[in-house]
Amino acid sequence: MKNLLLIITLFIIVAKSTPVLAWNDCLNGKVNDPFPGSCGQYLDSNQDNICDHSQTALQTSSTPTTKNYHFFFIATFLIITYGLTFYLSLRKIITPLTHRKIWNFFLLISFLVSGILGILLVLKVSYNWPLPFPNSLFWHVEVGIAMATVAFFHLLWHWNYFLPLKTSVTLRTRRKKANSSEK
After folding, report:
1. What ranges do the domains of the chain cover?
2. CA 61/CA 49 separation, integer angstroms
3. Is 151:107 a contact under the CB 8 Å cutoff?
4. Hey, is 61 helix, strand or coil?
5. Closest of 133, 140, 150 to residue 69, by C-alpha
6. Three-class SS of residue 23?
7. Coil, strand, or helix at residue 48?
8. What pLDDT, on the 0 to 100 scale, is given for residue 128?
9. pLDDT digits (tens, 9 = 90+) for 119-162
10. Coil, strand or helix at 168
11. CA angle, corner 55, sides to 51 and 61, nearest 5?
């Protein structure tokens, strides 16, 4: 237990001190490189939209800008749209199979877009590959929000698949306890 606490403490110290070590060590020799950075090592611990690696010292911006993601708008829009297609399937305007196909298609497209953007971002960070468009991270997160929302619908559809799994695990655990107590 003491070793675990020591490891966690050391991890926190190293994690908190990393941004401090990032000043004025740009591999490309850039000075005040703006967001998203020209290389894959962009780090902005003080939220001034300038890469810390390219800054000569801790600089603060008078008006820090942040990226605002649209979680509630995207989730609400998808929940309302899901409700609409569910209502249409209940009223027999579309079949329940069509309802599921629509949402499986949305899940597939959001997974592919988010996954491909994620791979491109990894290639940018690891190998300094230029990206075809500058807002890749923003769109990766936005589409990821949509994917997570639709995946929640998907999980609700298939909830019955997981209930027998949990029951069988619980039964196996009970049998093992019963067998071990008999010995």
Report:
1. 2-54, 71-159
2. 9
3. yes
4. coil
5. 140
6. coil
7. coil
8. 81
9. 998 988 888 888 777 788 899 999 999 999 999 999 988 888 77
10. helix
11. 75
Residues 6+ apart with CB under 8 A from 43: 19, 22, 51, 52, 53
What is d(CA 86, CA 36) in angstroms, rounded to the nearest whole number? 40
Phi and psi at 15, nearest 5°, equal -65, -40
The structure tokens listed for 92 are 């027999």
The parts of the chain modelled with pLDDT lower than 70 are 1-29, 35-47, 52-53, 56-66, 165-183
Q: Are 60 and 46 in contact (CB under 8 A)?
A: yes
Query: Quick check: 27 and 39 in contact, CB under 8 A?
Result: yes
Distance CA 21, CA 98 (A): 55
Q: Under a CB-based contact definition with an 8 Å cutoff, are residues 66 and 43 in contact?
A: no
Q: What is the identity of the amino acid at 64? A: P
